[in-house]
Amino acid sequence: MRPDLSRVPGVLGEIARQRALEVAPYPLSEPEPVPSFREALLRPGLSVIAEVKKSSPSEGAIRALDTVAAARAYQRGGARAISVLTEPHYFGGSLEDLLRVRQAVDLPLLRKDFVVDPFMLKEARAYGASAVLLIVALLGELTGVYLEEARRLGLDALVEVHTERELELALEAGAEMVGINNRNLSTLQIDLTTAPRLGRLAREAGFGGVLVAESGYSHREELKPLEGLFDAVLIGTSLMKSPDLEEALRALVG
Question: Active-site positions?
């Protein structure tokens, strides 16, 4: 069951519609055990999900990258989990990147992509992901269906929102992990007040699960509004721009 992507505006819609054209089910190998993404983020303090990506729609090409070397640097630097982009056209990622990182580190991995078909969940599990990203702006009322399928496959799901209505849909769907994106995926604009504002609304609504703040963080002081409210933060571009990934991460989490 696929969402209606014709309604999705801007860059987000362009990427999602392209991904939908590329989904073609094929035989997958039997998945192996993977560490728990959710449990890793629930450890004391603000957990960092460090992201591996080579480019993005907002930045263009970021850097030439050895994904395995980057993942190992993140593990040494104190990341609790690693996000691996598998979208090829705008982010320069691949499922092969995910598999190579899985073979190189023992941290839980998030498959970061624009999931628009249930087969992409099966792919994520087969290639070594512990979790998948489910974007409410894409899936809408189908969020709960995809969430249940992810659970059936043994995947954790980070359910991403950017607006109050999307947050309501995520909570109604039974999300146990909610990612609040400071970036508007249609316009690519960032507002760092978005995550704290929606995070407080989620807690006030009784959400007791994992909260993850996403996008726009580059300095340690920017993380202070998240303390005591969020369990984790996902950081990508600012780390990717750093010449020393391990030290850049240590500066954020130390």
Answer: 51, 53, 112, 160, 181, 214-215
